[in-house]
Amino acid sequence: MNTKNIRRIISVLLVLILAVIFSFTTRSFLDARNLVELFRESALVGIVALGASFVIIGGGIDLSTGGIVTVSGLVCARLSFIPGIPGALVLLAGVLTGVVCGLLNAVLVTRVHLTEFVATLASGFVYSGLAMLIAFREGGIIQSRAITNASFTFLGGKIGGIYNITAVWVVLMIVMMLVLTKTTFGLHTYAQGSNARSALMSGVNNDFIKGSGFVICGACAGLAAAFVVAKNAAAPVTLGSDVAFEAIAACVVGGLVLGGGRGDAVGAFLGGLFMQLILNGIYKYNLPIAYQWILMGAIIVLVTAFDAQFNKLRFGQKKPRPVERKEAVV
Amino acid sequence: MKKVIGFLGNPWGQRLTILVIIAVVMAVFQQNFFRPSNFSSILLAISLYGIMACGMLFVVLLGGIDLSVGSMAAMTASILAMSAQSSGYTAAGFITGVLLGLAACVAVGIVHGVLVTYFAIPAFVVTLATKYIVYGLVLLVTGGHFVQIIDKGILYQLGNARLFGAIPMPEVIFILYAVLCAVILGKTVFGRRLYATGGNPVASKLVGVKTNGTVLVSYVICSISAGIGGMILASMNMQAGPTTAGGYEGNVLTAMVVGGLNLAGGEGGVVGAIFGALLVGIINNMLILLGVPSDYTTFVQGVIIIAAVSLNMYTSRRSQGLTRRRTKKPPEKIPVTR
Amino acid sequence: MAENNSLLACRGICKQFGGIPVLKSVDLDIGPGEVHALMGENGAGKSTVIKIITGVYAMDEGQIFIDGAPAAIACRQDARERGISVIYQELSLFPALDVTENVFIGQELSRYGLTRKKEMRRRVRALIDKYGFDLDPAAVVGSMGMAQRQMVEILKALSMDARLIIMDEPTASLSASETEKLFETIDSLRKKGTSILYISHRLEEIYRLADRLTVMRDGENVGVLTRDEITPQKVTAMMIGHELKEDKNRERRHRFEGNRLEVKGLWYKDLLRDVSFTAYGGEILGIGGLVGSGRTELIRCVYGAARPSRGEIALNGRPVSRSVGKNIKAGFGLVPEDRRGEGFVPLLSIEKNLAAASYDRLASFGFVSRKKEVAFATEAIRSYDIRPPVRQLPVGNLSGGNQQKVVLGRWLSRKPRVLLLDEPTAGVDVGVKHELYHYMRALALSGSIVVMVSSDLEELTRVSDRILVMYGGRFFEEFEHEKATQSAVLLAASGQHTGEGAAL
């Protein structure tokens, strides 16, 4: 049994256990309506986690996704007030905002050579700050304004009983699974996360892979934001407050090892679902929302500690011993 | 050009440049900045950042980071306020609150240290997670409400009294704390070991340094500093709750990078941390005077962090001759052996 | 031998680094389907030759022929296209990927942007079958042992149609059974006509594998031996060359029996098996042996930096602690092998690096006495002639020799009872080398125990009063200074007893 399987089993089990508990203790859990709502609510964090999975598998981290969600959401909200603008264009603008933010991250990391967490932590501040700049204000106070553009809010609705955002989430998961497993790009992402130096020597364009990961991540964040804004018909500046953290937690639960090289899109999907299940449980049992933060934090710590220990136990002795070299002291 | 880069690569060069820029901007736009009363309010504000930055310094010198300082400050602030309130604002309640708060900080610091050393989890992952855990705990304990402090006793004095009727208490505490940290870093064996561990942990182990212990103690010091900051903040605001000191990790991190500290560890000192805190205080004050809404502080902080770290990175890479060698085809230059 | 019989022929290759000739007219011929061994002491120039063949370095003079035709190899890609591949010492595999993906990384087959996994698997399968490897194309590399990982590296080379595979000390991180597996792999490669250039320090591997052997010394090749000509005596004689008859009749050093380090029955992982020895004050005890024979681990166990699984270590009858800190206080010191990685803190100043291990003396109640610290550093800088003599300068900015003086000075200033040195003069120029020997000798004369691990045979035989040679995780032979010759030590390191030493 290898790490990959164990981690998949853990993430599936976690989701199943929660689902079973809820289905037995609350009457309405398995209702079609409840499930439809569950999959809608999971989609924001879920889609961002899908994007973040590229960065994480490639050995990086993106702490700016929350900021990207907020700023993209506000761009959408602003644009939707232009009379006669088609919803698709608003959606596109949201995604493009995400892409631009992702590009900036990519430049900071691959060209300016900043440490990823510093770069994305700071750029996250910038993006959420930008959102403040473009937020609706009344008398200087930030106000959320109801969106009335029907062609845009249509995106937040359902087709065939399933929310658009859920459909997008599932399709995105399938596409990303294909990209990760079936394309050279995906293979190179794993290679980079697994052993960046060797990847470079094998002809992998590390900067391109890393940069693309950030762009994909940004695009996903923008996309998710647009759909959520369309559904809620409003874009508060708190839209993406803790999304970065939740997305990372989702990835970690889903079996993506921080440090890179392991995990896949299905894992990120399951992780997103898990995050929402926890939240649902908290609401159902009328627990303080505080438990959500405590649980997520604890999960990140526990699972990451597990990964570290597991690898140590398994590969600790097998690591190649350093070999001394004394020649060619130039 | 070379001289300019050399100047900007030097920490004092950077500090001076930033100060000059600020002075010019303020001279042009808002002369109120130069009033003595404004300076004293800046000093009051930076005493909080300063205490927390001095603590964070220990961790940054080891190449680590602590993103949970804001949550920890909220935690101690709430513990102190609740303890004082429930005891009817007696001195005993105050002391119990302080001790409980510090104990909680020590506990969190130990958790950080253990996870970072023995489990080898990156510091920012650990502290990002504990930031939310601690925040959740504070929410739970306070029920999400602010605890109001409605007594002008000893708790009030902590943040609002003036020494000799002139120097505000927070500044006194800050100065004492900064001196203490400077002494620990500069004059003690622990300080020497901290710098050694930050610069080369393996070599440090071989000269008998218990590196894991050093790291652990540093995280505890950082937690305690955040806690002290939180308590003063509670007293200054006369209330404490989950969002007390919210976003302070951004302020402290900004202080670290504009103070010229290398986030990779091994170099820097209290002067840098204090200068960083001072700059953050000045910048925040500047934004207020210029009439920029407080919502924009995170934006400005983000830009400043990126600019400062990029500049550091550029000058250090430049001095190592790395900037020009970057070509489209790097593989050829990678040596075969380590 | 004529060039046109050879797969690869090098003629008169010269290379200089900063004006210092590293290779002086090297010739090398490798026939098709031949396992050709390359031997030589450290610094003989083997790695440089490989780097020139594989296009990492450009040669200053000389010519390379492939299949008898002159070939220009300017970069790694050139070498690869001509069928030359290297198996690196540190493997360059991706643990998270499977065998097929590892083999094809960077040169994936794809159609419409999608990778053709099945086709790639099929090709890897075909290669595996052709060479009879014991591998599954779908297995994840992370779950494999070192020997299998090496096979994946070899597969990677074969998939690029490699005709010559260069292996540089491939057994350094393998266990005995894994080594045997590798040898079987090499045999099957030879049968299929793939040539192998095999670099190793281990004579027994050379006998087992090589069809021919080229021996290098000081940047020249000193001869080619065919399979039947390879004998330990001949090879060592060629590697060492004409041994200078030095004055072995120097005055017998006084042994301070009162200062005694005893090690009994030490076991550590699979690297040390029942090692025992006694070192005395007043003498420099040299420890020789090949890389991987357990020398470094031995002195690390003594120092407390590695935890032996069994065994006793005692200094003057008192058991030695397993904590580095306590041992330092008890008078131990270690100069590690990897100077930059383990020896000093590059960003810290000379004075703080010097004082790093001595705060038990330079501080009271946890507070450093600045006066004592400065005096300590100033004295050390003066005594050991560290240049430039500026206390505040970061050690990272010094030359290699001066860095080593700082590392050594840190201990010498403490007058340690036991000083353990691991390759103390590696990468240090000749002048500084002799200074370092002088300091070591002075310390020994004052009654301290000095233990020196070294791969430099000349250094070992000249400086040590007594030499213990390790082989396969235990001491193999002991030499007194008077009888130690470089060739005898080298033979002992390869598991050959000689008349000069005493078998252990």
Automatic annotation (TrEMBL), chain A:
InterPro entries on file: ABC_transp_permease
GO cellular component: plasma membrane
Pfam annotation, one family: BPD_transp_2
Membrane topology: Multi-pass membrane protein
Molecular function per GO: transmembrane transporter activity
Annotated TM spans: 6-30, 42-61, 81-105, 117-136, 162-187, 208-230, 236-258, 289-310
CDD domains per record: TM_PBP1_transp_AraH_like
Keywords: Cell inner membrane, Cell membrane, Membrane, Transmembrane, Transmembrane helix, Transport
Compartments reported by the entry: Cell membrane
Protein name as annotated: Autoinducer 2 import system permease protein LsrD
Species per Swiss-Prot/TrEMBL record: Sporobacter termitidis DSM 10068
UniProtKB/TrEMBL annotation, chain B:
One GO cellular component term noted in the UniProt record for this chain: plasma membrane
Subcellular location: Cell membrane
Membrane-spanning parts: 12-29, 41-61, 91-120, 132-151, 163-185, 216-234, 270-290, 296-315
N-terminal signal peptide: none
Main localization of the protein described in the UniProt heading: membrane
Pfam families xrefs: BPD_transp_2 (PF02653)
Highest taxon listed in the record's lineage: Bacteria
Keywords: Cell inner membrane, Cell membrane, Membrane, Transmembrane, Transmembrane helix, Transport
Record InterPro entries: ABC_transp_permease
Topology relative to the membrane: Multi-pass membrane protein
GO molecular-function terms, A-Z: transmembrane transporter activity
Classification via PANTHER family: ABC TRANSPORTER PERMEASE PROTEIN YPHD-RELATED, ABC TRANSPORTER PERMEASE PROTEIN YPHD-RELATED-RELATED
Protein name from the UniProt record: Ribose transport system permease protein
Gene source species: Sporobacter termitidis DSM 10068
UniProtKB/TrEMBL annotation, chain C:
Leader sequence segment: none
Membrane topology summary: Peripheral membrane protein
A cellular-component GO term for this protein: plasma membrane
The entry's keywords: ATP-binding, Cell membrane, Membrane, Nucleotide-binding, Repeat, Sugar transport, Translocase, Transport
Keyword Cell inner membrane part of the UniProt annotation: no
Cell compartments where the protein resides: Cell membrane
Keyword Cell inner membrane appears in the UniProt entry: no
Coiled coil: none
InterPro entries assigned to the protein according to its UniProt record, in alphabetical order: AAA+_ATPase, ABC_carbohydrate_import_ATPase, ABC_transporter-like_ATP-bd, ABC_transporter-like_CS, P-loop_NTPase
Record domain ABC transporter: where: 8-243, 256-497
Pfam families assigned to the protein according to its UniProt record, in alphabetical order: ABC_tran
Protein name: Ribose transport system ATP-binding protein
Lineage, broadest ranks: Bacteria, Bacillati, Bacillota, Clostridia, Eubacteriales
